[in-house]
């Protein structure tokens, strides 16, 4: 759910690209479409930019982001791989591939990729938050301490960023620091009242405390806020809700039926 915000942040960085450069006009067109949520149109524009400037890693990275936002996972991974072939330091592509690895269950590979990326950009909050969530998922010895360090570092840099607040809340839940998690997720809800991140995080917090009724209420709010981007399968598979996996009420709430 967080990749869309990262995508908008990435394209904002390119709004000042000079149109005299190969592919720049197409990139600007893609930027406008992406910022307005027209991702299919953005894909076409970024594909044009890639055709005009085949060695431009940035165009390939943005194409990957647009494809991912359009639900075309395999094509997004291919575009990000192409970006890294052109520039091994294209960190947005590295972040995209890491998220793909997390989605595929390759958590150790994602952690290794994010750790390598952070060597080049230790101050990037998006890399920190992605690695924090991956560390929480792996849950090996020392991972929670490292995840806490990452989430707090990101929070110091971007204390109002929704992705950062969601990650911080998730790490605090994993650490059983429920009051602090509640406060963080409440802050997220105030900062981004239309985002599905806060209610989803609150559903996970309620699940950690075995509060079934609250889980259902928050999941319904998250599903409503997410709209067409809601994906029932990953939600149903979220370990946070394992105690409800055979509950018909949970199944109905996740599917929206």
How does this model look, in words?
- With 257 residues, this protein is an all-alpha fold.
- It has a domain at 1-92: Alpha Horseshoe (Serine Threonine Protein Phosphatase 5, Tetratricopeptide repeat), CATH 1.25.40.10.
- Helices cover 73% and strands 0% of the residues.
- It contains 15 helices and no strands.
- It is globular.
- Mean pLDDT is 91; it is low at 1-7 and 9-19.
The sequence of SSEs as H and E is: HHHHHHHHHHHHHHH
Mean pLDDT: 91
CATH fold-type name of the domain at 1-92? Serine Threonine Protein Phosphatase 5, Tetratricopeptide repeat
Estimate the global geometry from the Cα principal axes: globular
Helical percent range? over 70%
| Uncertain residue ranges | 1-7, 9-19
The main β sheet shows up as: none
Please count the beta strands (DSSP E, at least 2 residues each).
0
Give the end-to-end Cα distance, rounded to a whole number of Å.
21 Å
According to CATH, what is the class of the domain at 1-92?
Mainly Alpha
What structural class results from the helix and strand content?
mainly alpha
- Give the radius of gyration: 18 Å
What is the CATH homology-level superfamily of the domain at 1-92?
Answer: Tetratricopeptide repeat domain
Strand content: under 5%
Helix run count: 15
**What's the architecture of the domain at 1-92 in CATH terms?**
Alpha Horseshoe
